[in-house]
Design a protein that fits this description.
Layout: H1 2-8, E1 11-12, E2 21-25, E3 30-31, E4 36-39, E5 43-49, E6 52-57, E7 61-64, H2 65-69, E8 87-88, E9 90-95, E10 99-104, E11 109-113, E12 116-132, H3 135-143, E13 148-150, H4 151-170, H5 184-199, E14 204-215, H6 218-234, H7 236-250, H8 256-278
Parallel strand pairs: 1-4
Antiparallel strand pairs: 2-9, 2-13, 3-8, 4-7, 5-6, 5-9, 10-12, 11-12, 12-14
Helix pairs in contact: 4-5, 7-8
Length: about 325
Amino acid sequence: MGFFSNQFSNVIEWNETREGVLFYKWQNQEIKKGSRLIIRPGQDAIFLYNGVVEGIFEDEGSYDVESQIIPFLTTLKSFKFGFNTPLRAEVLFINTKEMLVKWGTKNAINLQAAGLPGGMPIRAFGTFNCKIVEHDVVIEKLAGIRQMYTVEDVKERIIASLDQLLMSWISKEGRDMFNLQADARSIAGGIESDLDMDMRKLGIGITDFTIESFSYPEEIKRMQEKAAAQSMVGDMNRYTQMAAADGMSKGRGGSGIASDMVGLQMGMAMGQQMLNQMNGGTGMQYGGAGAQSGTGGMGAAQSANGAGPRFCPNCGTPTNGMKFCGNCGNQLY
């Protein structure tokens, strides 16, 4: 009895030894007495008889075909296993999990861009997610002629139409061809909708589509880097002014070159103002070498009455009517 039990029974299962398979058709078409059906997590099992769906089983577990499966089949409820009467049927295993697939353009896509008569060639890279969403459509369109269907088959179909979709959605008005990454989400959303509509004709849904990056030619990258560098140089004056203002707001508590420059400028301005006041408010300015006189070359500032300054313009010491400063020796007039 045990010999015949082993001879007639078999196990109907899908081990998923290959990754990325969306559906798999069980190869042994003879289901024998004592056979068991094993459904693993993330799988559905569909019984087909003469190409017609007899039943769909979605709950994972191990089932006795004769007692737990056949009673639920549409036209085979009364099937009785005999000594030589196996059930000739097909079992289609559906992978219900969502698949993540990487994609990339095979060739550069030539886009129209201002200033580039020949257009601008770019490439794009990203990912998409897919899963089987309609069992009946998959059976009708694919399972009848295929032993299995993989994500590579889906990818091949998507890549075939992706160039045109990218060109269409990138060419929408208002897009900056040199900064497409800013519009990547919007472009990807439009492509996802179009791809999902197309793949649902096969019973497969595109649940997500992302563009991770756009790749520009090396010449365009160098132009962008050069433009960025020129922009930084153009902003140096503005940066210096902002740094000076920041140093002034912090007072002497500031640090670094900007703070020292601000302190020096403030000190020179205050010294000039004090000197003008000491010289009687005559409006004379001390400017170092730029204030030198034509006679002595020593920078002697003359007062309004021509008698010489009351204070040395070099060190600020009272002159007391002398021609030379008693402190620093500077010629006064």
